[in-house]
Amino acid sequence: MSAVDSRYQRITAGVPELDDGTVRDVLRDGFGVTAVRTRPLAGETDRNLWVADESGVEYVFKVCSADDLAAVRFQNALLRHLAGHAPDLPVPQVVGDVIPVAGDLVARLLTWLPGAPLAEVGRRSAELVADVGAMAGKLAAATTTWRHPDLPPPHYWEFPHAPTALAESLPAVADPGLRASIALVEAEFVPALDQLAALPQGVVHHDLNAFNILVGPGPVRRVIGVIDFGDAQRTARVADLAVLLASAMRGQPHPLRVAAALTAAYHRVCPLTEAELDLLFPMLAVRAATVAATTARLHSASSHGDPRHRSPAAADLVRVVAEIPAHVGAATLRQACGLSAHPACDAVTGWVTANPGGAIVGFDLPPVDLSAGSAVFDDVDPRDPAALRAAESAAARSSIGRYGEPRFADGGAVRTGLDVFAAAGTPVTAPLNGTVEPGNPAADLVLRHEPAPGVRFWTIYNGLSSAGSGKVTAGQRIGEIGPAERLLVQLSVFPLTGWRQVPGTVAHEDAPVWQQLLPDPSPLVGGAVWTPATERALESRERHLPRTHPTYFSAPVNMVRARDCRFYDETGRGYLDALNNVTLLGHAHPRLVAAATRQLKRLNTNSRFVYDVLTEYAEALTATLPAGLDVVYFLNSGSEANDLALRMARYISGRDNVVIIDDAYHGYTTTVADVSPSRYKHYGKPDTTHPTPVPDRYRGAYGYDDPDAGPKYAQHVIDTIDEVNPAAFLYEALLAGGGQVVLPPGYLAPIHDAARQRGVFTIADEVQVGFGRLGEAFWGFQTQDVVPDFVTMGKAMGNGFPVAALVTTREISEAFDRTGRFFSTYGGNPVSCAVGLELLRVMDEERLQDNALTVGQYLRDQLSGLATRHPLIGDVRGQGFYSGVEFVLDRTTKKPAIPETLTVCERMKEEGVLVYPTGPSWNILKIKPPLTFTRAHADEMTAALDRVLEAGW
């Protein structure tokens, strides 16, 4: 057995424990530390003890064999170097010197670093991953330039020893699948380790795994410690990064993306050479295989092997990396660092672009759009994969699919080649001179092309019923399209030796790498390329829309269709809609689509003509309201409805003042903007507008624990009414813009009584909260047992179609008639009425108000459960399907978590769930999904929020 192997066997035998008295004596006499508390710590080769002195300062007391004295002094010298040359790196500080203790043991003392091991942080934000990578780069920059005269002896985990470690351990791997994966890594990547000596060298940590990196508490997690320099050694500089990647990738859903992010962050701090990048993936694969194989060898009850590596994730990672071709692994890491994915990329794409060819089937085929935005899928439910596939097949006959297109029928996966859809038996010809590479299981036919010095690439064909052999010339027949009537043509910059399959589709996130490895073949064979429309759309908005016109999210999403509770963007990705209170019945409800289409075919005009659907709708709408509210003014938007209500109240009362609730929003016209604090606070409050306190039981003067909060908040309104003698009191039955604030019980009734006694009109703004959304009642004001003088409505009234109305009494209407006729050209048009009428029928038949009541409460219960684990959540409130989650930095001070809330929304979008901030401080998630939202949707949203808050940022 080699010296390296013998040392490994010796150190795993362990170090004897010191009794407590001896430990305290050594600490006191050798290091000047009076230990008050101690506890044992894990360690593979040392005995480690956590120590706290009488002043609360914490240390790590380490005991090891005197045989390791030279290595210990090397480590101390390295830590002192870091303290002097990289003081911002969070590494332990050396206290005193090495002290001999009982027998052949030595002891040393280091400062304690707090934090949780990265390995115990289940979900990691992109910021944390970047911080880990940057820390590794800073460490490499500080250590690899350091020199020491006495290097420690080699050890088991060094990369040059990997062939021996794998050979010794592989027979102990019982799982045949794992054994095959390790053997594959051994065969493909171990030979590459011969290049290690040619890479930049230096002293490295050499055990920079996820257990030796400490991070702070969430949600803003960062690296606050790097520990355990016991394996520090002079070797290839990139070894540290390879060890880090092989550890940090474990258990992650997309390990190669994690590796790319870590490598990019490292590279920004400590630039890697091209040779290092090309060897990095083989090194991480070998490290992962060595850990898994060694774990299997040492996995026994009496083993002294490191238990940290025994997680199944170590073996799972080997299975993953064994399936990643070397070209792909290297390409991903190269591109992350700003290099081309493959050295041949530029030469190949340059030549192909400069030398266009023609159709390989003898005739030109029209391109077919099979993306999510295609009209092909307009009559297809996007939630039905079989229907999507059938529509795709029907549309794609005798056409050519676009390169780079995210196919809707493939769930948004991106095509890495061109699809030629043509009849079986259609001859296929070579695009240029080439040589057939036979026997490749990855394709029906592979042609190698070397059209110019230094230019070599391959064309790949899948879907041929027969294929040629030997050398071929441009235009020569190379086979026929097979019975599937579909030929996939791809171009590769790398040889396909050893490939079992070349992917026809890849995930959208991985497409940039693959599109360099498998670039666009359309210049050679004809065809089209899919290009995203988002950038063009944003540029057009920039040119033609006001600068203040908002968009959701820092990276706006180009939505191309929606159905029920999901949006779909141009890449085909679906997003759960927990935001849009306009589409009450869900997006594109088939019955509403049919009603609008049917009516458009029959009649659409203005309401000065007589047509039955208007009166049918007016009767159905007023039937949902209390008796007496039976005169309907049809309009186009909620802003118009509120504007008209205020105009009527002011005319009839002869007064101009209006009392409102602070932080409310009632619309965009001049009149209603003047009674909307979220608008007039930008230009000054009009003298006729009089805000009253928000009845917020979380932040306001009267809290959840005050049973009289409602009447107390109401008194502020009554006092204001008495003071200013207004025309009207305008309110929402749940404050939307004010922060999803639920009105406390007993709030509206005394206000209504006082207003009626004083001749003040009451206006219930139901634009956002009406139509069963609050669950308990059809109209929000009904949850407080009041009847207003005016009810305004819009938004959800037409499920996204522009329908709005003001409903009042006949007496009030006739009093307003003295001003002359009121008429809205489009208000109450036949199509609007048909849509609105069908919406009421669907709501009743599908019992959506009941769904809002039960599922809305279920959703809040789930969200409240998250609050027990995530202190950022200060309050969860709402009624029905109108809920709010308020984020605070401190639950005692209730300081709003403003940027954090927007970050949560951005991360939720990345998780495929749409929510957005609201409230005066924009620290509240507004949650107002369609009334078709199910418990499954609620679970999906809650799980996404849990993941976001756990990962932090």
Q: What is the straight-line distance between the termini?
A: 49 Å
Widest β-sheet, arrangement of strands: 11-12-14-21-18-17-16-19
By secondary-structure content and strand pairing, the structural class works out as alpha+beta
Please tally the β strands and state the result.
Answer: 39
Q: Number of domains in the coordinates?
A: 6
Shape: flat
How many helices? The count is: 28
Mean pLDDT: 93
Task: Write up this protein.
The protein is of the alpha+beta class. The protein has six domains: 3-111, Phosphorylase Kinase, domain 1 (2-Layer Sandwich); 117-125 and 148-336, Aminoglycoside 3'-phosphotransferase, Chain: A, domain 2; 345-525, Distorted Sandwich (Glucose Permease (Domain IIA)); 533-585 and 846-953, Aspartate Aminotransferase, domain 1 (Alpha-Beta Complex); 589-637 and 794-845, Aspartate Aminotransferase, domain 2 (3-Layer(aba) Sandwich), CATH 3.40.640.10; 641-761, Aspartate Aminotransferase, domain 2. It is 36% helix and 18% strand. It is built from 28 helices and 39 strands. The strands form ten sheets. An eight-stranded mixed β-sheet has the order 11-12-14-21-18-17-16-19. Strand 1 and strand 2 form a beta hairpin. Helix 4 crosses helix 8 (255-269) and helix 22 (709-724) runs parallel beside helix 23. The two termini are 49 Å apart. 48% of the residues are buried. Residues 1-13 and 300-305 have low confidence and may be disordered.
